[in-house]
Give the backbone structure.
Amino acid sequence: MMSGQTYASPNFSVLAQLASGGFASPVEYRVGEGILTSGIGVGDVTGDGRNDVVASYEGLAVFAQTPLGTLSEPT
């Protein structure tokens, strides 16, 4: 995971590990237009056994991991 701290970049990007040992191309996620995140956390916050991403800014945005391994839109 990478976190960007400028308005021109995404709030964070996820690079999934490939079975071959490398990484897939980054998938970018945004909390919202013009919002800077101040912290990123990873853990199972939805209780489904999958790691979710929580981004803090003036509030919290939860990106729940889907069964396919991608992240949902923030809630």
